[in-house]
Amino acid sequence: MEFEEKYYTSQDGLTLYYRDYASGENTTRPPLLCLHGLTRNSKDFHQFALKMRPSYRVISLDMRGRGQSDYDPVYVNYQIPTYVQDVQTLLKKEGLSEVVAVGTSMGGLISMTLGVLNPSVLKGIILNDIGPEIDPKGIARISQYLGKNVPLKNWSHAVMGVKTISGPLFPDYSADEWEEFTRNSFRQRDDGQIVADYDPHIGTAIAESAENAVPPDLWPLFGALAPIPIMTLRGEASDILSADTLNKMAERHPEFTKVTIANRAHTPDLREAHSQEVISSFLNKLNG
Questions:
Q1: pLDDT tens profile 171-207
Q2: Quick one: average pLDDT of 107-124?
Q3: Per-residue pLDDT for 61 more than 90?
Q4: Where are the domains of the chain?
Q5: What Å distances lie between residue 74 and 15, 65, 70, 143, 150, CA to CA?
Q6: What average pLDDT does the segment 129-154 reach?
Q7: Residue 210: what pLDDT?
């Protein structure tokens, strides 16, 4: 079995899903806690988890409103502070006192917030194409499709639509990789139609309050993370994390590793050979 499917109850009574990839070794290394992006889910980390599992336990969550987790009937709860509470509830449930956070996009914002609120729980943070400044160009791009959950007739139509929107993000993807990416992004309803695998009200929450997506000034938050080693991966063509912001992060953090992943935009999928090489190196240093 590649992973165990588990559930837990959030602080406000929702049933939330996560995958637990048990390590092939009896290791004392802190587990990797994988936190996905805004409209994504735990499946994004599957190939990464399989690669890391021989040496690390990997836990990958579906945040509320995504994948197999409950949708929140109070959509204003779709915001970073709520997600951080959900993560803390999971850590308590699993009895985890120390992890390494691997946060993609929104998952990186959750990781940074968790690091400020509970710094002792984070051995390190790996930020995937996110930082304390968000490029407006990327926000504008995401806003074009966020919450517009139009049903599609079949998987072929879904793949075509995903390639149209996301083609520049992964220019070297094969047909099989596009199929996998699409099936990680959508689900099939009982009527056979294909829809995005997240609650459309996430878009409503963000439209009503920009702070539900990104707090206004994250540099103080980032500054408070000085005691925690951080590595940040940036897609070479990212429209969310600029090269200038990445350089500023390196200047301001005392234990910072910056990496640019070629042929990627927002975000690297962590299956790239370069991504896996630098992540393994970072983890080896953390664990002495």
A1: 999 999 999 999 999 999 999 999 999 999 999 998 8
A2: 97
A3: yes
A4: 4-148+200-286, 150-197
A5: 14, 11, 11, 21, 22
A6: 86
A7: 59
Residue 144: both structure tokens together: 């074009």
Q: Check pLDDT > 70 for residue 211.
A: no
Q: Which residues of 211-248 are buried (b: 16+ CB within 10 A; e: fewer)?
A: ebbbbeebeeebeebeebbbbbbbbeebbbbbeebbeb
Confidence of residue 74 (pLDDT cuts 50, 70, 90): very high
DSSP the chain: ---EEEEEE-TTS-EEEEEEE--SS---SPPEEEE--TT--GGGGHHHHHHHTTTS-EEEE--TTBTTSPPPSSGGG-SHHHHHHHHHHHHHHHT-S-EEEEEETHHHHHHHHHHHH-GGGEEEEEEES--SS--HHHHHHHHTTTT----BSSHHHHHHHHHHHHGGG-TT--HHHHHHHHHHHEEE-TTS-EEESB-THHHHHHHH-GGGTS-S--HHHHHTTTTS-EEEEEETT-SSS-HHHHHHHHHH-TTEEEEEETT--S---S-SHHHHHHHHHHHHHHT-
Q: How far is CA 87 from the centre of its chain?
A: 13
- What fold does the segment set 4-148+200-286 form as a domain? Rossmann fold (3.40.50)
User: What values do phi and psi take at 188, rounded to 5?
Assistant: -100, 125
Its pTM stands at 0.96
